[in-house]
Amino acid sequence: MSSRRSSRGAISDEEVNELMSKLQSLLPNSRRRGSSQASTTKLLKETCSYIKSLHREVDDLSDRLSDLMSTMDHNSAEAEIIRGILRS
């Protein structure tokens, strides 16, 4: 396989490897493995799993914030601080 693909817009194997390495460095479990290279398939599966867990965490935090806001006096200083944070 050549290091450069002939079709327009394709990237080189070197660029793919660099991107995969960057992706691996963003995953918490991959960082602990150090510099060992994971297979592309395994790395992409880990990435999907990590993104799903982030979505679950966002949903959970959103639910907790909604619960907190529903029990809070909407004119309080704390409520105004939270609204200010959410606007930014």
TrEMBL record:
Q: Which GO terms describe its cellular component?
A: cytoplasm; nucleus
Give GO terms for biological process.
positive regulation of unidimensional cell growth; regulation of brassinosteroid mediated signaling pathway; regulation of DNA-templated transcription; regulation of leaf development; regulation of seed growth; response to absence of light; response to brassinosteroid
Sample GO molecular function, one term: protein homodimerization activity
Q: What UniProt keywords are attached to this protein's entry? A: Growth regulation, Transcription, Transcription regulation
**What residue stretches are annotated with the BHLH domain?**
1-54
Q: Name one Pfam family in it.
A: bHLH_ILI
InterPro entries documented for this protein: bHLH_dom, HLH_DNA-bd_sf, PRE
Superkingdom assignment: Eukaryota
What the entry lists under PANTHER family is as follows:
TRANSCRIPTION FACTOR ILI5, TRANSCRIPTION FACTOR PRE
Family the UniProt entry places it in:
Belongs to the bHLH protein family.
Instruction: Please report the name of this protein according to its UniProt entry.
Output: BHLH domain-containing protein
Q: Which organism is it from?
A: Triticum aestivum (Wheat)
